[in-house]
Write a structure and sequence with these properties.
The chain has about 350 residues and is α/β, with parallel strands linked by helices. The chain is built from 15 helices and 12 strands.
Amino acid sequence: MRKYRKQEHIENYLRTKFTGNPRFCDVFLKHNSLPNLAVEDVRTEIEFLGKDIEFPLMINAMTGGSDFSEEINRDLAELAKACHLPMAVGSQTIAIEDHQARRSFRIVREILKDGIVYSNINGLLGPEEAKIAVDLIEADALQIHLNPAQELIMKEGDRDFTKVLSNIEAIVNAIDVPVIVKEVGFGMSKDVIQKLYDVGVRCVDISGFGGTNFFEVENLRYPQEDYSELFTWGIPTALCIIEGKSLQYDDLVLVASGGIRNAEDLVKSIILGADMTGISGELLKYLIHGGYDHGRDYLENIKLKTKILMLLLGAKNIKELKNIPYLLKGELKDLVEQKNEGR
């Protein structure tokens, strides 16, 4: 059933119509007419989780477990290799349960060879399952995804999340690779990030509202139900980044995902405080609808336009980009100014 559900998720995502707003439109950047830079001066290299990376974008977790998803993972891995990007596989829970599903994940490491690959499991699993997932693809890090909202509208979904935080703590203490705890599109509040930090997590992917909407994806599996009133539920990605950055921990690494569709979204994410960004659903659309070449053109376009925007902001590297001033407007400004009210 899990294998069939994974394919259903992909098919349903491609049928979704609701588009959330990650609120990057409420971040205003000032154009610099005297940048004193040439395009060749602009550098996008970063260090992320102990690895040197050419560009601050990862192909984030999407799928795995079926023949259909194996082909998608093959193409995604080829894109990651061609564009020199890290890649995370989708949830490996199915591979832990079903050995036949492992090929769809292992193909990623076979293609990327010395590239950077991240494992992925859900927060209800423990250290032993985490080690299996990491070993399966010789992962450079492990993502643990948090998806209570999604689970609650799945008829076969989990209903008890009382052990998730203790599971995460146990995994952090048991495995030898870095741990990234990520949402799946509903965002992380400052309080949640703090709780994760307190149990030893040093990298979070806030995966905010504005990208893949799993309320709609799951609702499409149950056409007789109507969950549309929940489609607007979540914390906008831009607000999640600001809240995470406000904790001011020097060793806390923030990944921004959830509605990052272009270079401007990526640049704004880093200026707001992200160290890395992730893209998934938007890339999947380009890949499925246009094929590998279309997906590669899309990623290379993001890389080129990021350099253009960095030059127009006067930032010659990612460190300087992080220090570019910004202004907030509209709903995001209201949320930031009022976030402590009502307590």
